Amino acid sequence: MFAAIPVPQVSLVAAPVAESVAVPAAAPVAVPAAAPVAVPGVVVGAPIAPSPSGPVALEHVGQITSQYHAQDELGQYAYGYSGGPSAKHELKTADGLTSGGYSYIDSHGLVQTAAYLSDPVNGFRVAATNIPQPRQPEYIADSPEVEEAKQQLFKAQAEHIAKL
């Protein structure tokens, strides 16, 4: 259908070249001994006790927040924000994969987090700290009647298989 166009193979990066170079050794240098230095005596005064200070009024600078958003013509995007008691981020790629996560403080004061992933093949999947976990069922031992019925069933199945 389409003719193949030959493309010459060109190396875009030159191969590294290692060279050995002889370096002459430096001759030792004579360093004169340092002359003694006279330092005048230092007078230190008595320590000063700190005085108590009153309360310091701090200026409220507001909530520190940040946010970002970027997207292109292929439908890819990335956005997110953080600040206060919550944060969120999300990323979508050209192949339809969407991933992200968020966190917030619930009514009990606990930080709840969630991470999600969505794609055209497997759908939406989430892992979160606020999803209830089912209780594991307790093991209930078989009664003697149930155990006897099971043994009769296994025996009947074995006889049936033996006839085949």
From TrEMBL:
Statement: the UniProt record of this protein carries the keyword Ligase: no
> In the UniProt record, does the keyword DNA-binding occur?
no
Cellular component GO terms, alphabetical: chitin-based extracellular matrix
Q: Name one GO molecular function term.
A: structural constituent of chitin-based larval cuticle
Q: Which InterPro entries match?
A: Cuticle_Struct_Prot, Insect_cuticle
Sorted keywords for this record are:
Cuticle
What Pfam families does UniProt report for this protein, alphabetically? Chitin_bind_4
PANTHER family from the UniProt entry: CUTICLE PROTEIN, CUTICULAR PROTEIN 72EA
The protein here is known as Cuticle protein 6
